[in-house]
Automatic annotation (TrEMBL), chain A:
GO cellular component: cell envelope
Primary localisation category: other
UniProt keyword list: Signal
All residue ranges annotated as the Periplasmic binding protein domain in the record: 56-292
Identification of the protein by name: Sugar ABC transporter substrate-binding protein
Any one GO MF annotation of this record: carbohydrate binding
Automatic annotation (TrEMBL), chain B:
Entry's Gene Ontology cellular component terms: plasma membrane
Protein's recorded name: Dolichyl-phosphate beta-glucosyltransferase
Subcellular location: Cell membrane
Sample GO molecular function, one term: transmembrane transporter activity
Keywords: Cell inner membrane, Cell membrane, Membrane, Transmembrane, Transmembrane helix, Transport
TM ranges: 35-55, 75-98, 118-140, 147-165, 185-206, 237-256, 268-284, 291-310, 316-335
CDD domains xref list: TM_PBP1_transp_AraH_like (cd06579)
Membrane topology, record value: Multi-pass membrane protein
Length: 321, 341
């Protein structure tokens, strides 16, 4: 019992120390604000997603190289928390805010507050349409991503057929891609026989696997669809596994993001035939350049919404990646 | 008058008969209600099977689909089985999903970096045991509430999973390891055998061993158990360790099935496992966690998802219906329990 009490005391002391250390870190960061070094606060809601992590890390590296002081906050899909974090950054009087892959609607409270405080808000893939509250938003061209990936299925089946869609409506970009793909399939003689929306992005691969597995069970052999189009690679990988597990023939999968596991799957010459690599180096580069100009002479970009096309990756060029 | 007039005794005869009849009927209805209460969830499960069987007989009832359902629920069955153990001792574990994610991340990271498969698997299982031990210590010895303790552990374990994976998807696992989640034996997916094995072990321990009886005693009334000489703290501790070990095993199967690992892949299983155990509790007359009931709960969740997918029902409607069925089953059990008592 005495040992337990001592352990509890030690645990409490450790927690307290860690908490104080954390607070100390913040204090130290604020103290380092000399006025000459730009303070940049980056916010994201989905750092756990491979593409988001890649982009945010890339930005942090480039910004650090420029000599800026960068803090990154992830709210884990909690937008109330994200807006509060942005307001905290405004209180810290940061020099610029960067929204990474966030929803402009859900983050609007914090973004508007930043504008009111005259703090510029730059954005990485954080909205599918122009928005006057952003100083600059550089995003992937979702129409092109969806078109190129859907085109891979259409080219594999020039006579049309049936196709399953797997999207994620909560993500504005993926929702926009799904709308484009659906329209393109309809125009090319395809019937969309199922449109599944991912419930839990954390388990997207397994959810897609289960959904396609069940669909193929209900529609075996000749009734199987000609293709499965997924709004992002993790869902595409799950669909591929279901097709292989069911032994379904001539069902192709296409998705987008250009995640490394998807490229590896395309190299195998299996059902996964295409993904579209989002050009993060260009997207991040444009944001960093624009911020650098702002920090240098205070000027803001003339156009505040830029869309960058992706690169289709198929069996033909997968080995180059 | 004398013949027509009834004596108090005469009056009592039909009253007694009526009372006997009423008592007989009420005994019947009580036992029918009891049967319905204990069998209602199973009946609901059978009705679900029948409904989907009628709507899509050629697909839903096929052997291939039954195999799919078993494969799809295997991982949930493993986590729900060990969650049952924790709930038998009167607690619950919110960290089971995160532990599965962390174990999957550990095994994948080790193998991607060239570690031997057996070493990686052993390390991942050890991680699960460690998480379970921390939970057990916090709950049993430091007397933290299971909610607070396992919520905190879940958060930290989830963070550790991000650290281990560095937020990326780990892939490129050895073929030998993939057999655990993707292999077939006797025509059935290997995860099904793992789930059956875990369920049988949990069933055996809960029903036929001193450890199981002590777990039940602690869950029933820890004060009485203590007075009977049961080491209550140790029993709680071991239950959480079992949950940690089982969750890490589920994480291994999941990683093998997906041929990849992310920091969050096992997270959604936590709520589903608790839902399965709650559904299963309605199968028990006493309303306590039990492995047979848990498996029925797992079956309901699995069949519901599979059947609605086959019918082409929207994901959002599926989610709504799943919640509705859980509430209906638990509420029905509560109501009938009130009436019978």
């Amino acid at each position: 019992m005495r040992i337990n009490k001592m352990f509890a005391l030690a645990a409490t002391a450790l927690t307290g120390t860690l908490t104080l250390t954390g607070c100390g870190g913040d204090a130290a960061e604020s103290a380092a604000d000399s006025g000459d070094t730009p303070q940049v606060a980056v916010f994201t809601a989905s750092y756990a997603t491979p593409a988001v992590k890649l982009g945010v890390d890339m930005f942090e590296d480039q910004a650090t190289e420029k000599g800026w002081e960068v803090s990154v906050s992830d709210s884990a899909n909690d937008y109330n928390k994200l807006n509060a974090q942005v307001q905290d950054a405004i209180s810290r009087d940061v020099d610029a805010i960067v929204m990474g892959y966030t929803s402009q609607e859900k983050a609007s409270l914090g973004i508007r507050a930043a504008n009111e405080a005259d703090i510029p808000v730059f954005a990485i893939d954080a909205g599918v349409e122009p928005w006057d509250q952003y100083t600059l938003n550089v995003t992937s061209d979702n129409t092109q991503l969806a078109t190129d990936s859907a085109q891979a299925i259409i080219e594999a089946n020039p006579d049309g057929g049936q196709v399953l869609l797997i999207g994620w409506d909560s993500h504005p970009g993926i929702r926009a891609r799904t709308v484009v793909a659906e329209q393109l399939f309809a125009e090319n003689g395809f019937e969309v026989v199922g449109n599944h929306q991912i419930q839990s992005p954390a388990a997207a691969q397994e959810e897609a696997l289960t959904y396609v597995q069940d669909y193929l069970q209900a529609h075996p052999g000749q009734d199987a669809p000609e293709g499965v189009w997924a709004g992002f690679d993790a869902a595409g990988l799950g669909a591929t596994q279901a097709i292989e597990s069911a032994g379904a023939q001539d069902v192709v999968v296409a998705s987008m993001n250009g995640d490394d596991f998807a490229i590896e799957e395309i190299k195998k010459d299996g059902p996964f035939v295409a993904t579209v690599l989002q050009d993060w180096p260009t997207i991040i580069g444009k944001v960093v350049t624009s911020m650098d100009t702002y920090f240098t002479d205070g000027s803001r970009p003339e156009t505040n919404h830029v869309e960058v096309p992706g690169t289709p990756i198929t069996r033909e060029n997968a080995s180059q990646y | 008058m004398s013949t027509a007039q009834k004596t108090p005794l005469d009056e009592n005869v039909p009253r007694a008969t009526a009372s006997a009849r009423t008592s007989h009927v009420s005994r019947h209805s009580a036992s029918a209600l009891q049967l319905l209460k204990s069998g209602g969830t199973v009946l609901g499960f059978l009705l679900l099977l029948a409904a989907f069987g009628v709507l899509r007989p050629e697909t839903f009832l096929s052997l291939g689909n039954m195999r799919n359902v078993l494969e799809q629920v295997a991982i949930l069955a493993i986590i729900a089985a060990v969650q049952t153990v924790v709930m038998v001792v009167g607690g619950f574990d919110l960290s089971v999903g995160a532990t599965a994610s962390l174990s999957g991340a550990v095994v994948a990271q080790l193998m991607v970096n060239g570690a031997n498969t057996l070493t990686a698997v052993a390390a991942a299982l050890a991680v699960g045991v460690l998480v379970g031990a921390v939970n057990g210590y916090l709950v049993a010895y430091l007397k933290l509430s299971p909610f607070v303790a396992t919520l905190a552990t879940m958060t930290s374990v989830s963070g550790m999973a991000f650290i281990v994976t560095d937020g990326t998807t780990l892939y490129g696992l050895p073929e030998g390891f993939l057999g655990l989640g993707q292999g077939r034996w006797l025509g059935l997916p290997v995860p099904v055998f793992v789930a059956v094995g875990v369920a049988l072990i949990v069933w055996f321990v809960l029903h036929s061993t001193t450890l199981g009886r002590r777990w039940h005693a602690v869950g029933g009334n820890d004060e009485v158990a203590k007075l009977s000489g049961v080491n209550v703290d140790r029993m709680r501790f071991t239950a959480f360790v079992v949950a940690g070990l089982g969750s890490s095993l589920a994480g291994l199967v999941l990683t093998s099935r997906l041929a990849s690992a992310t920091a969050t892949s096992g997270d959604p299983y936590m709520l589903l496992a608790i839902a399965a155990v709650f559904l299963g509790m309605t199968v028990s007359r006493e309303g306590v966690a039990n492995i047979v009931g848990t498996l029925v709960g797992v079956g309901i969740l699995g069949v519901l998802s599979n059947g609605l997918n086959i019918l082409g029902v929207s994901t959002y409607v599926q989610q709504f219906l799943t919640g509705l069925i859980i509430v209906a089953a638990v509420a029905f059990s509560r109501l009938s329990h009130k009436r019978t008592s």
